[in-house]
Design goal:
Elements lengths: L8 H8 L8 H16 L8 H13 L2 H22 L4 H46 L6 E2 L2 E8 L10 E8 L2 E9 L3 H21 L3 H18 L10 E9 L5 E7 L5 E3 L5 E3 L22 E4 L5 E5 L1 H4 L11 H5 L7 H16 L7 E8 L14
Antiparallel strand pairs: 1-2, 2-11, 3-4, 4-5, 5-6, 6-9, 7-8, 7-10, 10-11
Helix pairs in contact: 2-3, 2-4, 3-4, 3-5, 4-5, 6-7
Length: about 375
């Protein structure tokens, strides 16, 4: 079974080996080490551990043929050491040789099992990647007078999907967007992501007011919670920010914050302005039904400005001394040619801050307004 590059993942492992070395280096290195040790120690004392380890190393790193070859070489070298060079008693020599032979016979079975595991894992990752693309499709780079960029960064290498989400949609009421973070991990978090995004896409097309769209998502989550009543998943909630550039009003932003880190507005002069809400509302899925409706904050959106929405994986990224990443301080005074460059620089800066040890997923969405005098393209639909 091949991965997206068309190469068998098991064959790729054999080609790259361990730490970039050829896959035969370690097994034959173990045999050579055994030879050197037995030449150094007094004659009559045979060390066989490295000979037994060599077939196991080959099973983990090399092909079936390579594993069989290493096993044969290990048995042959062990025989020479025991019966010719050291000339240890026959009974002891047979015991040591039997150990190496047994490990050599077991190694092809280990090699086959490992191959199946690697192929299954590669298949699972491809399925997860397809699910990620289906749930979080990449929006178009241009929507009307706006440039758009998104990133999803998993905390763990190989992870493809989690509880962070984003979406951008061109609607009759303007360009609407959401970034959110689902409580929890795993499949239950992915289920909540699909509920939130499905409700957002439907509400974005149907309701004229952004706060009403947030309530639409709230209702969908409550409906889902009722269906899951009595399970561990019925206590979930989602922190989220919804934003809108109203149709016909490109110089305005409306923000609705439901318990989420405040978005940032990056101005052309390098100023970074956190868009703090007047009062924080409860996350989606936790509303008690008695709160006054949040009408959202309306702020200016000048030409060449960029709106940055992100999940708490950004602000909770810590360095070796435990200091949290501060996007306002780190981005202030910097200018970026577009939202893609902004997100690339931000992720690079976070990686440098944490030494590559981020502990949480990150979803990032940047939307930049065109500079003055730039012609607006026709609005494009967004997924």
């Amino acid at each position: 079974m091949n991965d997206s590059s068309g190469e068998d993942p098991w064959e790729r492992l054999h080609r790259t080996g361990l730490f970039g070395c050829a896959p035969w280096v370690l097994p034959y290195g173990l045999i050579l080490t055994g030879v050197v040790i037995n030449l150094v120690v007094p004659r009559g004392t045979t060390v066989s551990a490295t000979y037994a380890a060599a077939p196991l190393a080959a099973a983990a790193l090399w092909t079936l043929r390579g594993t069989l070859t290493v096993s044969a070489v290990a048995v042959a070298v062990m025989s020479v050491n025991a019966f010719w060079w050291d000339r240890i008693p026959t009974g002891e020599a047979l015991v040591r040789l039997t150990t190496v032979v047994f490990v050599g016979l077991l190694s092809p079975l280990i090699n086959s099992a490992l191959r199946r595991s690697v192929v299954r894992l590669a298949s699972a990752r491809r399925i997860a990647e397809a699910a990620q693309i289906a749930v979080l499709p990449t929006p178009p780079a241009r929507i009307g007078h706006l440039s758009v960029a998104v990133r999803y960064e998993a905390a763990y290498t190989g992870a493809r999907i989690g509880g962070d989400l984003y979406a951008v949609q061109s609607t009759p009421y303007g360009t609407r967007m959401v970034v959110g973070d689902v409580r929890g991990k795993g499949l239950s978090a992915v289920d909540a992501v699909t509920v939130v995004l499905g409700a957002f896409r439907e509400a974005a097309e149907r309701v004229p007011d952004l706060p009403e769209a947030a309530e639409w998502i709230e209702s969908a989550l409550r409906r889902e919670a009722r269906q899951r009543a009595g399970t561990e998943e019925d206590e979930g909630f989602v922190t989220a920010v919804l934003a809108e550039v109203p149709a016909g009003e490109p110089d305005r932003l409306r923000i609705v914050n439901r318990g989420h880190p405040p978005p940032l507005l990056l101005l052309p002069d390098g100023t970074v302005r956190p868009l703090e809400p007047g009062s924080y509302a409860l996350p989606l899925g936790l509303a008690l039904g008695e709160e006054p409706e949040d009408g959202g904050a309306v702020v200016p959106f000048p030409p060449s400005a960029t709106l940055l929405l992100y999940t708490d994986g950004v602000t909770e990224a810590r360095n070796s001394e435990g200091a949290f990443y501060d996007p306002v301080a780190r981005l202030s005074g910097r200018r970026f040619p577009g939202p893609t460059a902004l997100l690339d620089a931000l992720l690079e800066d976070i990686e440098a801050h944490t030494d590559g040890r981020s502990a949480d997923d990150m979803a990032l969405l940047a939307v930049a307004r065109d500079p003055p005098g730039t012609g607006s393209a026709a609005p494009a639909p967004a997924g």
